[in-house]
Amino acid sequence: MKRTELREHIFKVLFGVEFNAEQEMPEQLQLYFEQLEDAREKDLDYIRTKSSKIAEKIAEIDSLINEHTTGWKTSRMNKVDLTILRLAVYEMKWDEDVPTGVAIDEAVELAKKYSSNEGPAFINAVLGKLAE
Length: 132
Prior knowledge:
72% of the residues lie in helices and 0% in strands. The chain is mainly α. It has a single domain, classed as N-utilizing Substance Protein B Homolog, Chain A (Orthogonal Bundle), CATH 1.10.940. It starts with a helix and ends with a helix.
Protein backbone atom coordinates (compact mmCIF):
# COMPACT_ATOMS: atom_id res chain seq x y z
CA MET A 1 0.00 0.00 0.00
CA LYS A 2 1.05 3.58 -0.55
CA ARG A 3 1.54 5.88 2.43
CA THR A 4 -1.64 7.81 1.66
CA GLU A 5 -3.68 4.62 1.78
CA LEU A 6 -1.95 3.46 4.97
CA ARG A 7 -2.66 6.86 6.54
CA GLU A 8 -6.34 6.54 5.69
CA HIS A 9 -6.50 3.14 7.38
CA ILE A 10 -4.72 4.56 10.44
CA PHE A 11 -7.31 7.35 10.51
CA LYS A 12 -10.13 4.80 10.48
CA VAL A 13 -8.54 2.75 13.26
CA LEU A 14 -7.98 5.88 15.38
CA PHE A 15 -11.56 6.96 14.80
CA GLY A 16 -12.63 3.71 16.47
CA VAL A 17 -10.69 4.66 19.61
CA GLU A 18 -13.38 7.26 20.30
CA PHE A 19 -16.13 4.65 20.37
CA ASN A 20 -14.53 1.51 21.80
CA ALA A 21 -13.06 0.74 25.19
CA GLU A 22 -9.30 0.25 25.22
CA GLN A 23 -9.66 -3.46 25.97
CA GLU A 24 -11.93 -3.85 22.92
CA MET A 25 -9.46 -2.31 20.47
CA PRO A 26 -7.40 -5.46 19.71
CA GLU A 27 -10.57 -7.29 18.65
CA GLN A 28 -11.82 -4.25 16.70
CA LEU A 29 -8.46 -4.00 14.96
CA GLN A 30 -8.58 -7.66 14.01
CA LEU A 31 -12.10 -7.27 12.60
CA TYR A 32 -10.95 -4.26 10.60
CA PHE A 33 -7.92 -6.11 9.26
CA GLU A 34 -10.12 -9.01 8.09
CA GLN A 35 -11.78 -6.55 5.69
CA LEU A 36 -8.45 -5.56 4.12
CA GLU A 37 -8.08 -8.39 1.64
CA ASP A 38 -5.20 -6.90 -0.36
CA ALA A 39 -3.10 -5.81 2.61
CA ARG A 40 0.27 -7.40 3.18
CA GLU A 41 1.51 -8.28 6.64
CA LYS A 42 3.98 -5.37 6.63
CA ASP A 43 1.08 -2.99 5.86
CA LEU A 44 -0.94 -4.38 8.77
CA ASP A 45 2.08 -4.09 11.06
CA TYR A 46 2.58 -0.46 10.01
CA ILE A 47 -1.09 0.38 10.64
CA ARG A 48 -1.09 -1.45 13.98
CA THR A 49 2.15 0.12 15.20
CA LYS A 50 1.47 3.69 14.16
CA SER A 51 -2.13 3.75 15.38
CA SER A 52 -0.96 2.34 18.72
CA LYS A 53 1.79 4.97 19.05
CA ILE A 54 -0.71 7.73 18.32
CA ALA A 55 -3.27 6.33 20.79
CA GLU A 56 -0.60 6.32 23.51
CA LYS A 57 -0.02 10.05 22.96
CA ILE A 58 -3.63 11.21 22.67
CA ALA A 59 -3.55 13.24 25.90
CA GLU A 60 -0.33 14.99 24.86
CA ILE A 61 -1.58 15.55 21.31
CA ASP A 62 -4.91 16.95 22.56
CA SER A 63 -3.03 19.34 24.82
CA LEU A 64 -1.04 20.64 21.84
CA ILE A 65 -4.22 21.03 19.79
CA ASN A 66 -5.94 22.90 22.63
CA GLU A 67 -2.97 25.28 22.91
CA HIS A 68 -3.30 26.21 19.24
CA THR A 69 -7.05 26.67 18.88
CA THR A 70 -9.25 29.55 19.93
CA GLY A 71 -12.84 28.79 20.82
CA TRP A 72 -12.49 25.14 19.86
CA LYS A 73 -11.28 22.69 22.45
CA THR A 74 -10.89 19.02 21.62
CA SER A 75 -13.92 18.21 23.77
CA ARG A 76 -16.11 20.28 21.39
CA MET A 77 -14.62 19.18 18.07
CA ASN A 78 -16.37 16.71 15.85
CA LYS A 79 -14.70 13.32 16.06
CA VAL A 80 -13.66 13.19 12.40
CA ASP A 81 -11.73 16.47 12.57
CA LEU A 82 -10.26 15.56 15.94
CA THR A 83 -9.03 12.21 14.65
CA ILE A 84 -7.48 13.82 11.56
CA LEU A 85 -5.77 16.42 13.74
CA ARG A 86 -4.42 13.77 16.10
CA LEU A 87 -2.91 11.82 13.24
CA ALA A 88 -1.36 14.92 11.66
CA VAL A 89 -0.01 16.32 14.93
CA TYR A 90 1.62 12.98 15.70
CA GLU A 91 3.24 12.96 12.27
CA MET A 92 4.41 16.56 12.64
CA LYS A 93 5.87 16.16 16.12
CA TRP A 94 6.99 12.55 16.43
CA ASP A 95 7.26 10.89 13.01
CA GLU A 96 10.59 11.88 11.48
CA ASP A 97 9.70 10.09 8.22
CA VAL A 98 6.89 12.55 7.45
CA PRO A 99 7.72 16.18 6.59
CA THR A 100 5.46 18.75 8.24
CA GLY A 101 4.09 19.97 4.91
CA VAL A 102 3.17 16.45 3.87
CA ALA A 103 1.41 15.82 7.19
CA ILE A 104 -0.65 18.99 6.72
CA ASP A 105 -1.47 18.28 3.06
CA GLU A 106 -2.50 14.70 3.81
CA ALA A 107 -4.66 15.85 6.74
CA VAL A 108 -6.45 18.36 4.52
CA GLU A 109 -7.07 15.63 1.93
CA LEU A 110 -8.54 13.35 4.60
CA ALA A 111 -10.77 16.22 5.71
CA LYS A 112 -11.97 16.76 2.14
CA LYS A 113 -12.98 13.12 2.00
CA TYR A 114 -14.43 12.57 5.49
CA SER A 115 -15.25 15.92 7.10
CA SER A 116 -17.76 18.71 6.54
CA ASN A 117 -17.29 21.51 4.00
CA GLU A 118 -15.58 23.60 6.68
CA GLY A 119 -13.33 20.75 7.82
CA PRO A 120 -10.41 21.17 5.41
CA ALA A 121 -10.00 24.90 6.21
CA PHE A 122 -10.30 24.24 9.95
CA ILE A 123 -7.72 21.42 9.82
CA ASN A 124 -5.35 23.55 7.73
CA ALA A 125 -5.66 26.52 10.11
CA VAL A 126 -5.01 24.50 13.26
CA LEU A 127 -2.07 22.64 11.76
CA GLY A 128 -0.67 25.85 10.30
CA LYS A 129 -0.59 27.37 13.80
CA LEU A 130 1.09 24.26 15.15
CA ALA A 131 3.72 24.37 12.41
CA GLU A 132 4.77 27.95 13.24
